TrEMBL record:
Residues 706-728 have a biased composition (Basic and acidic residues). InterPro entries: RNaseH-like_sf, RNaseH_sf. GO terms for molecular function: nucleic acid binding. This is Transposase. It comes from Paracoccus caeni. Residues 688-728 are annotated as: Disordered.
Length: 728
């Protein structure tokens, strides 16, 4: 490609090396002279070309002729039309039209002077031509009485000639015609020296840049104190004392600090991070479910914490006592919301009195299941988003997210969890923006609205008007998130005015949707679990019976408790995990009457069945006691009349027999009978009256003889083994 070397005119303006000024060729290089300081620098051709494109040295300034009119434009710093206000742009259009009329007059007369432009016939000629180009206001030749806002008045001849000369010298640049009103006013330091500025800064630091948010009047008081102290020192040094400054001077100095710096000092970094941080303009997600944002917000609504059916079961005294504390049981609820970033469609929403692990798990279950039940129950017209998978789950570090149960559940369904910073809305801009929309278009219309902050609605009693219960409020929010919000045009980043429901339909048609997790994974990682023993009838969990053919085939191999997982939103099926069995087992609900209920609904039905009036409970229990007592008396009477043996045992009798068995079984050792000897005494061969010799006695052996032993009368020859004690 052929390289082009541009012709750089002498005096062209360039910004390079921290200098801004004109360049002059010096051989193969260029000399840059700064306008403000006079400093010089030697630039190469490449550096000059790059400097021509730097801010502060646009090409039209660099190539502008070195005339007085061009210098005036450069001095003002306004090179483009839309750097000016609307009023000044209209001034340019009017004066430019006059310049065309003057050029036509010059073409007619050949030459004009200021006196020529003051003649009435010449002014009318210029006006006729200018009025054709400038049509916003009528043009008057001279000023008359009345308002001047509805007409454009032609200047005097000398002024118009000055405008025309300046216009011609600038090469027909319309920017030379405008009045430099931006240079008006006092551009100096307003008579404030550096020491006074230091005192004003010190006063602002000590009495204004405070999180208690004092007023500027407090800073002005502090400044007066500092000036008085400073004047005492200056008087001792023979210097002129400072004059007190007014409120306007201090306010002007305060604005130089910067609004962001003032907000950090007075509101804190958290508030500035939420209110003044930069937004995002990139595309965060292309698939539905690729990135979802979750947040919780305490609604500015007063609701009634009263369950259906509970009020009717109360006695009159309880109703009266509850009515007295009715204001106490009114509360504000949290709305936990999940938003899909790719389509801006709401995926799940839950109302709760306090965010928790159970609330977040319920939110994830709702996003990964079908929501037709909510559509039918609350009478919605549009279809909600179907069940989707979650690839990336982004939420702040709140208590409802920062727990083991939620993290394990997300990992179980193969979802990546991202922890955003708490109280930093810039980390979750999409769902934060949606809360603002819900607040401004829905919440502030509902009875019991409290306002965005304390005391926002002084003429409205939110406690008295808070009559909605949780179910009614959830229905209103559901209809808004299904029927209204998805059908509104969205002008957020990358939405370009599309409606969220149309954007979602387009992505679904392109199959740009994350696959939802399997039913087994949802139940195991997001459902409710109980450990139960299996019987021939199957497994009973949460009061519901489950069974299947596959489970019965494993019946003989199950010797311990099994874990059964139930999806609270669909109790038709459950998953059973068995020890040492590889695959999960699917079981079905055998109670067909309850198949269409959710688990919370079934537990509510069960609770309602168990609930009973305390008076009715007392009457029923008393009746049962009477019937059982009458049966016992009848049986006892029959036994006495017919002489039947007693079939029961008293406590004393049972304890006596138990003591006999608890001491163990022992061998009997009877005493020695009179006139007899024990076998031990007989074996000693000692003379005794009870001993009688029978037969010849013991004979010695044929060969040899018995050894002679010492007489040992106390030694037992034949010793019987010790068998005393309990025999076991």
């Amino acid at each position: 490609m052929t390289k082009i070397k541009y012709a750089i005119p002498r005096g062209a303006r360039v910004a390079a090396q921290g200098l801004t000024g004109a360049v002059y060729p010096v051989g193969d290089h260029y000399r840059l002279v700064d306008d403000a300081t006079g400093s010089q620098a030697i630039l190469s051709y490449t550096e000059v070309v790059q400097g021509l494109n730097m801010p502060g040295a646009p090409s039209r300034i660099a190539l502008m002729a070195q005339t007085e009119a061009a210098a005036r434009i450069r001095q003002g710093g306004r090179m483009y039309r839309y750097q000016l206000s609307e009023k000044l742009r209209d001034q340019i259009d009017f004066r430019k039209a006059l310049m065309v009329g003057i050029e036509a007059l010059i073409a007619k007369l050949g030459h004009v002077r200021a006196t020529d432009l003051n003649r009435i016939e010449h002014r009318r000629f210029v006006r006729e031509i200018a009025q054709q180009l400038y049509t916003r206001l009528p043009i008057d030749i001279a000023r008359r009485g009345g308002s001047v806002k509805e007409v454009a008045i032609m200047p005097k001849g000398r002024t118009m000639l000055v405008y025309y000369t300046r216009y011609r010298e600038s090469g027909g640049d319309e920017m030379s015609l405008v009045d430099q009103v931006w240079l008006r006013g006092n551009r100096t330091g307003h008579g404030i020296c550096d020491r006074m500025r230091h005192l004003m800064t010190l006063a602002l630091e000590q009495a204004y840049l405070d999180t208690k948010k004092p007023t500027i009047a407090a800073a002005l008081k502090k400044l007066c104190t500092l000036i008085v102290q400073e004047n005492d020192l200056r008087q001792q040094n023979g210097q002129k004392p400072f004059a007190l400054v007014d409120h306007k001077t201090l306010s002007r100095h305060m604005k130089k600090i910067g609004s962001t710096a003032i907000s950090i000092a007075r509101d804190g970094e958290r508030s500035v991070a939420n209110n003044r941080s930069r937004g995002t303009t990139d595309t965060r997600a292309l698939f539905i479910g690729e990135l979802v944002e979750v947040d919780e917000c305490k609604l500015s609504l007063i609701t009634v914490a009263k369950k259906h059916g509970f009020w009717a079961a109360l006695s009159e005294n309880d109703k009266q006592a509850l009515a007295e504390i009715e204001d106490v049981i009114r509360t504000r609820l949290y709305l936990v919301l999940m938003l899909d970033v790719a389509s801006r469609m709401p995926l799940a929403w839950v109302l709760t009195d306090a965010p928790s692990e159970a609330t977040t798990r319920e939110l994830i279950r709702m996003a990964t299941r079908d929501k037709t039940r909510e559509k039918i129950r609350y009478g919605c017209e549009c279809d909600p988003l179907p069940a989707i998978g979650l690839a990336c789950f982004k939420a702040d570090n709140g208590t409802g997210i920062r727990n083991v149960g939620v993290k394990q559940g997300l990992l179980g369904i193969r979802t990546h969890s991202i922890d955003a910073r708490t109280y930093h809305s810039i980390d979750k801009p999409y769902v934060e923006r949606m809360f603002g929309t819900i607040e401004s278009t829905l919440i502030n219309l509902i009875h019991g609205y409290t306002g965005r902050k304390a005391g926002a609605l002084p003429g409205y009693d939110a406690l008295r008007n808070g009559v909605l219960d949780c179910e009614e409020l959830y229905g209103i929010i559901t209809r808004y998130l299904i029927d209204e919000y998805p059908n509104e045009r969205h002008f957020g980043t990358n939405m370009m005015g599309q409606r969220p429901i149309d954007r979602a339909a387009g992505l679904i048609a392109e199959e740009a949707v994350i696959v939802p997790p399997s039913a087994h994974d949802r139940r195991i990682h997001l459902g409710w679990m109980e450990q139960r023993r299996m019987t021939d009838e199957g497994i009973k969990a949460f009061g519901l019976p489950f069974n299947s053919v596959e489970l019965q085939q494993l019946r003989d191999h199950i010797h311990s408790r099994v874990a059964i997982y139930v999806d609270p939103d669909c109790i038709r099926h459950a998953t059973v995990l068995i020890e040492n069995h590889r695959e999960p087992v699917l079981v079905d609900l055998s109670w067909t009457e309850m198949q269409d209920l959710t688990l919370p609904q079934f537990l509510a039905v069960l609770e309602q069945a168990w609930n009973e009036d305390p008076q009715t409970t007392h009457l029923r229990e008393a009746q049962l006691a009477r019937v059982r007592a009458r049966l016992s008396d009848q049986l006892e009477k029959i036994a006495l009349e017919r002489g039947l043996a007693r079939s029961f045992m008293t406590v004393d009798e049972a304890q006596t027999k138990a003591a006999r068995y608890s001491t163990g079984v022992h061998v009997s050792h009877p005493g020695q009978l009179p006139g007899t000897l024990s076998p031990d005494d007989i074996a000693l061969e000692l003379p005794a009256s009870e001993q009688h010799r029978i037969g010849r006695g013991h004979q010695p052996p044929i060969e040899g003889g018995l050894d002679e032993k010492e007489d040992r009368p106390n030694e037992r020859v034949f010793i019987k083994p010790d068998s005393k004690g309990k025999l076991t």
